[in-house]
What does this fold into?
Amino acid sequence: MSIRAEAVDAVNRMVWRTGWRLGPQLPVAVQRAVVRAGARLAPTVAAGPLQRLRTNLGVATGRPVDPALLRAAVASHLRMLVESFVLPGWDREAIVSRVRVIGEDRLRAAHTDRGAIVALPHSGNWDLAGAWACGTGLPVTSVAERLDDAEYAAFLAFRRRLGMEIHSHREPGLVGSLVDAVRRGRVVCLLADRDLTGGAGVPVEWTGHRITAPAGPALLARMTGAALFPGVCHYTGEPGTGGMVITLADEVQHRPGRDGLVAMTQRTVDHFADRIALHPADWHMLQPFFTGPGGPA
It folds into this structure.
């Protein structure tokens, strides 16, 4: 790791440690001030992550990204980060009151019957979604990207405080652990837009643009017989007091074979693309995403 990368990593760790220590006491006015200040600066910054965000939003919306959308996207990203700091200080009532789920009845019916798997993109606040589920009788098991030991341990502790059971994406026997979670009556919730498998994902299209998407949700649904629901989160209201809507699609029907796996994943990605096009500012994709013909590298 370069000296510059080490410095950035050290700053990031300091921000997260400080945020988790002070976040639950952070006044709403300060939360909003942080979000608004970052949003105002966004159009003036040409740094790599913001340029990648601009590129991804342009493909997702099919139009050039104007300063207003970029400001809104940065504000949403900062809101998600600030919420992650303050979330451990919210009680069950505060969490549940902030979240509305479209399709909740289907999710609960499947969870009671065959088990349920929810696939989400990096939109809104997926930790708030998990906290809502755990607080309403839907215990969540999920997978987190394994970073260095100190940072991973901190994120693990954070999510466990919210009631979630977390596995590393590098964990040996991960699939077996997730199968067991479904059989124990837990809702397996997986982030499923970015492919972290190093080439094991499946090729699909996002509104005509080629991507490689994780096959895990579809594969796990077929292995367990559980229902697979794609969902997308978007924010409502102001930071600090506003809420979030989770829109679940109809259940993705199980299909056999490799072609069936691709078809199930494509159906999941179609829901992501449709909903994100309606609320693009809440999609926090600051990494390279679209590749191949039809999309920028």
